[in-house]
Each structure stands twice: as structure tokens, then as C-alpha cells.
Amino acid sequence: MSKYRNNPAAVRALVRETEVHKDAYIDQEVFDLEMEQVFTNSWVYVGHASQIPNKGDYYTTTVGDQPVVMVRHSDDSIKVLHNRCPHKGVKVAGEGCGNTGKFFRCPYHAWTFKTDGSLLSIPLKNGYTDTGFESCEASHGMAAVKNVQVYRDFVFCRLANEGISFEEFFGDSLTTIDNMVDRSPVGKLEVAGGVLRYINNCNWKMLVDNQTDTCHPMVAHESSAGTAVDVWKRAPEGTPKPMAVELFAPFASPYEFFEKMGIRVWPNGHGHTGVSDSIHADYSAIPDYWEAMVANYGEDRAKQILGECRHNTVYFPNMTMKGPIQAMRVFKPLGPGKTLVESWTFRLVGAPDILLERTLMYTRLINAPTSVVAHDDTEMYERAQEVLHSRGRDWVNLQRLYDGSEQPDVSTVTNGTNEWQMRNQMRAWVKFMGPAAKAE
Amino acid sequence: MNTLTEKTVLDFVYAEARMLDEQRFDDWLQLFTDDGYYWMPLTHNQPDPRLHTSLLYEDKLLLQVRIERLHGKRTFSQQPHSRSHHLLQLPTVESMDAAKGEAVVRTAFHYVETRVDEQQLYAGWVTHTLVMQDGVLKIKLKKVELVNCDAAFGNIQLFM
């Protein structure tokens, strides 16, 4: 008998106001329900329009555990299709990206599909005459995801046919995307510099949780950021501060810094650190960039755009964005104890190359499998995943600065070390578990 | 004073790998010129370390941070420590200019990194750009190209 499937009360009981039960991180059944519900009922990031600029360009990825292909259709719209041939179930578009021309062709039996998924042709089609083929699901081609939304070139989809609208789901949290795009003097981003892929042997929610965890950098990253600061202190006087030190050093900031910078939460599990200050607030000015911004936006607006210093914005369920450094991470769940972390980087179109160079250096130093900062984060997640099944304790605690009057689904700004955003995510988790977690 | 010969170059490559496996990291860092770099590209035939991201592209300062961190008391991802093993194929000297004191040497390798019960195997090619400075052979660029550089990896914590 299953413990969580068909037992919504048990699923609902995994999340208390300030605690989460260990099974939410380690149980296979809970994970399966997350894939079927959370990653189906919410709007999940798919890809960026700049990856598929021309008709027929495609990019294969996953939404939760669902293999999909994002493709530029013949009318220039962007379609998201389930990447499975309706005939024998073969993956139609191969790994990665490419251009498929006017149609996809399954490599097994050459069934072809238009880039909206509809069936175009079958070899020896008369073999299906009078077989009732028209009433089979195969005759409808590759299944297209009905709900796709492109917001300033960021492509999201909701796999469920019915559910919350894009606008209601994201609300004001879209201002983080706005700010990152506005940082381009021409208001345009391009995916650039490749994608770093990193396997973490932990539950995907630990990574999301870490995004607004401001009480760990000075502890877990003492060995990397602290050492970088120490090494730099020994440099001969007058040596210009290297970009790498500028990127590392803020991780060693004290608790007070993180408390003051603030956290903002939004409905449906979104939120961000770095409201009034952040680890990204004090980077050196880039020659010619300010001038390009002013030329396009005027001085006041340019100042406003660049004055925004948001640190990590969590887009529930599994994407996180750093506007000021033009980096994004996607946490792709592979199993209850396995997550693929993709670090994507963007070029601000019309801005000097050195901004991209800084973005790439940041993501390499902080988020790569070879990163000394990431090593210690991953060590913590993997240690947790290893021992969460302990019967010594059953709950993960998210209580810091909890106030009994805290309401779900509000927009507010609070102390930068509040764990409100972690609670916010878990409330959204219950909400988007939908029928799988409906209280009796 | 060393002279640049095929033998000194090959000996250097072997000695460098041994230094890493014996975890003599401070000595190893001294093998680099002051403007030396250690580069692990992220993609095959990646031309540019600046405007394309890499697994590693580190100057001497960053390598110093990495090494000092390995010694740190609060370096949690190294509790317990990792160990490494290099297996090198006979290096080939791609170019050598004894007069200028410059050589480029390419070596196929298998590299094992272990930590307690976990053991990971990596394979690739390392290209050393070496220069003679004051009679001592130094690394100007160590480029490590993994055969699967674009794969999703877990932690890689030591030096290939």
C-alpha cells in the first residue's frame, strides 16, 4: 500500500507552518507526485527565445520529468512539444539543439510532424486506410503543450491544460526578468557563453532553499571567499583589485550585511534576496556601459535600472535568476536524491563584452562543478541527503523570524535573514500539489 | 642551468603530475610563470576562455586561493580529503624552440579522483606551454581538455 499516493492528507501533513517532513526530500512517491502535480500545475521555465532565432530551430529539454522540445514554428511563434513519437514512443528531436527545417522526422520509421506537432506524413500511409486510425491518439501527432507563454524572450509553460494564469502565477515577480532585460542598452538578452552542467546528489528543493539562505555564506564559504580575501590582502599595495576578488569577497560579508539587505516575498512561492543592498551591489563600473544606458534610457531611468541589486530571485518551482550579473540557474529534478543544475549566462545586447566576461567568470567561480564555492554548498546538500532518513529527527526547520501572524501568498519585504521565502516556497508546494495534497 | 631538450620537457611533465598526486600543491604552484594560467575548456575546440565559459580558467592568484583553501580547517568539502592519480601516455613535443626557450607538449592522460568510497575517472589531453625563465622550466599555460568536457559532472576538487 502506498503511503502518499491517493493519500492527500498525508502529503498535506508533510508541510507545517515552519517545518517540512524529511519524506518531502527523500521519498520516491512524493517525488513522483511532485512531477505529476507541482511541475505540471505551475509555470515552469523551458528556455530562451534567443536559443531558437530561426524557423525550425529547436532545443530539447525537460519540464519536471517530461522530455520536451521547444521549437520556432513556421509562423515564428514558439511551440513546446512533448518530445515523443506517437508511433513507437521514440524521442523525435535528438539531444541538444539544431534546425529541423519545416518538420520533425522520427528517425525510426520516418513519420513526420509539423513544428506545431501535427502529423504531416507516414510512409505507406494507405496501410492505415480503414483501420480507424483517425480516432487513435497517434493520428494527432506529437502532443503540443497548450499553455506556453513567452515573457521578454523567456519561455515558460504550464503542462496542465487548466490552471492558474501566467500573470496571476508570477505577478510582480516578473520585475526581476524586466530588470535583467532592461540592463541591456537595447532591452535585449542573448544566451551566451555555454551552459555549465553540474550533478548534485540531493533533492532539488535543497538548492531552491539555498537561494535565499543568507545565514550560510559566512559559514560554508569561509574556506573559499574568506581565503580569497586573505590572499588578496597580501598583494603588494597599489595592485588593482582583480575582478575575481571583487566577485568572491562579498560572500564573506558578516550577518549584519545580510540582515539589512532584505528579502521580498511574492505569492505562489516566488521571492528574492537583496532588496536594498546585496553581494552584487558593489561591482566596478564598466567603461562605455553607463553612456550606452543613458543614451537609450536617459539618466534617471538608467540609474533606476542599474540601482536594482537583487541577489537571487526564486521563480518557483525550480529557476533562479541573478539580474545584476545576468546569470540564471535551473534545477532539474532527476530523482528524489539527484538534481542537474544548469547555469545559463546572458549577453546584454549592446553592452561591452567585459560584462559577459564578468558574468562568465562569476558563474565559473561560484556555480561550476570545479567551483570552490559550489564545492562547499554541494557538500552540505549531499550530507543532508545522506542522513535525512535518520530516525533521530523527522523535520527540517524553516522557523527563523517566523511570526504567527504571517499570511500565505502576500507580497512583503522583511529582514534579510528571515526564512519566510523558504516557507513561502513550501506553501506554494502544497498549493500546486493540488488534489494530491488537498486537506480533508 | 637546464637546457631545453625533449628529455627535460618530458621529465617536467611527469614530475608535475607526480607533484599533484603527492599533493605538493605549494611546490606545484611555483611551476607556473607569474602570468601563467590553468585552463579547462567546457567545449571541444573552444577557442576563447574569456567570452565562453570554462570549467576552469585561473591565474596564479586564483590557483593560490584554491590551494590555500585545500589546507583550511573549515574546508568542509575536503573533510575527508580527496586524492588523485595521474596515468600519462608518453608525451609528444608538438613544438620546441631551444633558442627562445619555448616548448609545447601534449600528453594523453587518465585521471582518477577519489574521496572515501567514491572514485571518478576522467580522460583527456593536457597541453603544456612551457617557457624557460632564468634557467628554470615554467608553465605558461596548462590546458586540460577532457574527452567529455561538456558532460554534467559532480564535484571535481583537485587538479588534473
From TrEMBL, chain A:
SUPFAM superfamilies: Bet v1-like, ISP domain. Keywords: 2Fe-2S, Dioxygenase, Iron, Iron-sulfur, Metal-binding, Oxidoreductase. It comes from the Bacteria. The keyword Nucleotide-binding does not apply. Belongs to the bacterial ring-hydroxylating dioxygenase alpha subunit family. This is Phenylpropionate dioxygenase-like ring-hydroxylating dioxygenase large terminal subunit. Pfam families: Rieske, Ring_hydroxyl_A. One of its GO terms (molecular function) is iron ion binding. The keyword Iron applies. Residues 43-123 form the Rieske domain.
TrEMBL record, chain B:
InterPro entries: NTF2-like_dom_sf (IPR032710), Rng_hydr_dOase-bsu (IPR000391). The keyword Lyase does not apply. It holds the Pfam family Ring_hydroxyl_B. Keywords: Dioxygenase, Oxidoreductase. GO terms for molecular function: dioxygenase activity. The keyword Metal-binding does not apply. SUPFAM superfamilies: NTF2-like. One of its GO terms (biological process) is 3-phenylpropionate catabolic process. Belongs to the bacterial ring-hydroxylating dioxygenase beta subunit family. This is 3-phenylpropionate/cinnamic acid dioxygenase small subunit. It comes from Azoarcus indigens.
